[in-house]
Specification:
This protein is an alpha/beta fold. It folds into two domains: about 120 residues, Urease, subunit C, domain 1; about 290 residues, Metal-dependent hydrolases (TIM Barrel), CATH 3.20.20.140. Helices cover about 35% and strands about 25% of the residues. The protein contains 15 helices and 16 strands. Helix 4 packs across helix 5, helix 5 packs parallel to helix 6 and helix 6 runs parallel beside helix 7. Bound molecules: N-(iminomethyl)-L-glutamic acid and fe (iii) ion. The site of fe (iii) ion (FE) has 4 residues, from loops. Fe (iii) ion binds next to loops.
Length: about 425
């Protein structure tokens, strides 16, 4: 099957050659072709160019033609941080926060991650798959074409495995590109209260070997934070994961400046995520690393946290990625377009920066840069066509609207 998209008002994020990531001043540059065409073949991006040089159609067999007049074509969003397999919503905690409690106070009362862990224990795999598919479908229609999903609401051998098996099944049945992260060290479960060391041993000695054996995860992650896991514990867990071939990530500096970024950089983490409390030392550490700083504006917004210093990081020359953190507690939305709007309005990122941060840079953070994140010959044809809009600035400007008209994943038209 071949698809030809013609008369595209603007083909966005065109990179003739693959690049790993975009950083510093370059984040404001977004290469585009005006009045363009794009050919898709065998699930891949085949060719593109300006309509002025359109070579014409030599073979009409098996060809679907889409006219994208007044519309933009972009590579699908890559969402490199979510917890979208979960068993129940937590709007009660949302109301508690409105009434004055903090995320930490709610967690201390058994809410937060432990609340989701309690519900996860009793949930069946089929039910989890069904609910996750609804969420995947929702983000797919909002332009997301690849997503990372974490475990971490299991917190026991059996339930962490259940979550990861659900994610494995989602990889098989969803048209989205999915990567799995083992987040056993998300919180100390209630039955290990006061016995954190024993729980860490369970994660390292019992969970990891089975997860590696069954190839259930691509990444390993730790919530490095007061009352969760210290930087030293984070390093231990990440290094253990590395022994099994898992790539490290860290939940870092979300609620305090606690050392997660440095721990991640020390372990060669592919990304450190959240970053509300990043300071000069963390920026310096990141500048000497290959770790992608990733901000999660949905969580910062929803928990009323301080803004992560996005502008400062970019101006210091760093790359930056934006992910949704889609989860029931701190970010019950996977809408990448909304995440970009928050970054523009609250953090003073410009629209081009947010588009680079949600495509090439998140593809890097998900280790799928060679196949996704830009319009590049040979990359997977995961793209979306917008409604009729004026240009790329209109995307974060129109917060709350869904501007996605058609979705193509793996070279197949998913919605139109
Ligand atoms: O990324 N920070 C830790 N973990 C999640 C929140 C999980 C939850 O509250 O359920 C996050 O924000
Ligand atoms: Fe998270």
């Amino acid at each position: 099957m071949k698809i030809l998209i013609k008369n595209i008002k603007k083909l966005v994020q065109v990179r003739d050659e693959h690049i790993d990531c975009v950083k510093g001043k370059d984040m404001a540059l977004l290469p585009c072709i005006e009045n363009a065409w794009l050919a898709i073949e065998d699930g891949l991006i085949a060719e593109y160019g300006s309509m002025d040089d359109f070579p014409g159609i030599s073979d009409w067999r098996n060809l679907e033609i889409i006219d994208a007049a007044n519309k933009l074509v972009l590579p699908s969003w890559v969402d490199s941080h979510t917890h979208l397999v979960y068993a129940g919503s937590r709007e009660g905690e949302f109301v508690d926060r409105i009434n004055g409690l903090s995320y930490e106070e709610i967690a201390a009362r058994g809410g937060g991650i432990l609340n989701s862990a309690k519900r996860m224990q009793d949930a069946g795999e089929d039910e989890l798959i069904e609910r996750a598919l609804v969420r995947l479908n929702e983000i797919m229609l909002q332009g997301t074409g690849a997503v990372e999903i974490k475990s971490g609401y299991g917190l026991s051998l059996e339930t962490e495995l259940k979550m990861l098996r659900v994610i494995k099944r989602l990889k098989e049945i969803s048209p989205l590109t999915i990567k799995a992260t083992f987040l056993g060290a998300h919180a100390v479960p209630a039955d290990y209260k006061g016995r954190k060391e024993e729980y860490i041993e369970l994660v390292i000695q019992q969970m990891l070997p089975v997860i590696a054996e069954e190839k259930l995860a691509d990444f390993i992650d730790v919530f490095c934070e007061q009352n969760y896991f210290t930087p030293e514990e984070t390093i231990r867990v990440l290094n253990a994961g590395k022994q099994y071939g898992l790539v490290p990530k860290v939940h870092a500096e979300q609620l305090s400046n606690y050392g997660g970024v440095k721990a991640g950089v020390q372990c060669g983490a592919i990304s450190v995520d959240h970053l509300e409390y990043v300071g000069e030392e963390e920026i310096a550490a990141l500048l000497n690393s290959s770790t992608m700083p990733t901000i999660l504006p949905g969580a910062a917004f929803f928990l009323s946290l301080p803004n992560p210093p996005a502008r400062k990081m970019i101006d210091a020359g760093l790359p930056l990625a934006i992910a949704s953190d889609f989860n029931p507690g701190s970010s019950p939305s996977g809408n990448m377009n909304l995440m970009q709007s928050i970054c523009c309005v609250q953090y003073k990122m410009n629209p081009n920066e947010t588009i680079n941060a949600s495509t090439i840079n998140t593809a890097y953070a998900m280790c799928v840069g060679k196949e996704l994140g830009s319009i590049t010959p040979g990359k997977k044809a995961n793209i979306f066509i917008t409604k009729e809009i004026s240009g790329t600035d209109f995307i974060p400007y129109s917060f709350g609207s869904n501007l996605v008209d058609s979705v193509i994943l793996n070279g197949k038209i998913i919605s139109r």
